[in-house]
Batch of 3 targets.
Target 1
Amino acid sequence: MTTRRGMTTRGHSRLNSSAAASATDEMGILGEGATEVDVLRRDLELQERENNRLKDQILSLQAMLAQRPSAEELKSAKETVKNVELLLAGANRENEKAMMETDR
């Protein structure tokens, strides 16, 4: 009987060690799969962060664009600047003439 128990125990130990080995292999495969999933999750998180950053940048640029004057307003402002410069040039010429007459 003692011999029989020894064989039985050895048989169980073989089963247990092979079951443990196969579980380790399965766990290794699962572990690799989990690592792949983790990598994909991290990549997805990074992409989501980048996406959110770009969305924020778009909103910021749209807000800046909304504050910018229209093309018509810019054209009008440029014409006004040109007219003011012409008036200033004319006033400077008149001042120079007046200074020359005063010097005489």
Target 2
Amino acid sequence: MKKRIEHFAKTYFYFNKNEKLGIYLLLGLIVLTLCVKWSLTFLFPPKLFPLSMQTLMELDTLAAKTTHQNKFVYHTFDTVYKQRQFKKKFPNPGFVKYRHDTVYPVHKKKLEIIVELNNADSVSLVNLYRIGPILASKIISYRNKLGGFINLNQLTEIRGFDADILYDLQGKILIDETRSKKYNLNTVSLEELKQHPYFKNNLSQAIVNYRTQHGKYHSFSDLRKIKLVNDSILERIRPYTLIE
């Protein structure tokens, strides 16, 4: 065991003459450097310059500001910690404790007006709550096909106009039925009648054919003689027809 230790020491800690000389020189340089540094400090001590009263006041002000900023930071960290604990305890609170400095979009409240649908333009319709340009265009287009509205429920026949929108518009829209167009069943052409949404091709053809076969209509009860016309259809188309 002893021989192994001696062999290890000779192998890793053996230095020749040149290596020993280099080590001695390095140690000497280190000692010399430390002595020179100590001597310079002793021979040339640092000079202290007296501070003026103005400089002292400026330093005091800077120290006060630094202390105030540190207090603010500590308070911020403390607030953040409390908020995090609050969120852990109440994940979805029913109120907002702090209002953050966030820019929220301003939604302009639409004008409180009453619009008559059979005479309204797109500008008037867009001013209504929940009516945008697209829906306003659909309302006007469907009104033109009908020849005018006769009741508010007809609005729900427009795609995108549901019962909720109609409910929100209660008291803000009205209909003047006198503005609606009426077709004289004794003179209207087949092509003209087919343009109306309530008169499908078969119904239009049946009405014209009956007139051709039996002569002029004398009353709305004559329409009930047509197989395609039941009570619900007659009730639906009657406001848009007249017999003269």
Target 3
Amino acid sequence: MYKIVNHSQNERLFAAKVVAQQRIKTLLVDQEEAEKLLEYRTNFIRQNDEKKKQELKRMRETEIIEEMRSQALKEHKKYLSSLEAVKALGEVEENTVISNDSLADDVTLTEGHLEIRKRRRSRSLTRKVVGTIKKTIRRSVSLFNNHRDHHQNPTPKI
């Protein structure tokens, strides 16, 4: 005849359902925030890695450029010194003394003995200097040609 309704049990089930739905909503919001944070951190790490790679690349390029400049400067100085040596040999008179003797010996000699010490310059020394100069010039020319071949703008093909 009478229907017995258990209101307290229905209220408890309804309350548990509401609490579970709220908990699911908060967990979904937390999951979205965690995904955004993870994406932000991975992007940040990726950008830092790219910056480090770019910086290392720039440092390597500057080191290579500085090394090439110093090498070219050394070659140029060798070339200039050999050019000066050739000019100096061209200006040397036939009767000058080219010697490795110390200046102390020359100071102790009297004026009369100075003429005795004069002798003709050695031909082997001249050959040695000229050979070194030719070698340096050859190296400089080949270095210049190699640099030009590798760094010249390519001609457009029509």
